Amino acid sequence: MSATIRPVQSSDDEALSRICLLTGAAGKSAEGAHSIPELLGLIFALPYNRLETTFGFVLVDNEASVDSKEGGIMGYILGTTDSKKLEAAAEREWWPTLREKYSKGDYPNR
Questions:
Q1: CATH code for 3-106?
Q2: Band of residue 110 on the pLDDT scale cut at 50, 70, 90
């Protein structure tokens, strides 16, 4: 197998969300544990791919089909250089939309 590490891109969102779901139960799949599976990625991965002071890298399988759903992305690492700035940016730019779309009562765990 041949793999490459590259900076994360906004076009990687679907793969980040999928990997987040597949590892969301202490490294195991959380697919059956949530009635709204996309929330894991929206909460724990995508803000780090969209907001200020964040960075990330993805591990890409060079032999994966270009047409594969996740584009060959096998893993990721995401972080921030300033947690306080990230929290402030998320409160301004990220959480309001999610709060509006997903009310707490609409998200029971299974």
A1: 3.40.630.30
A2: very low
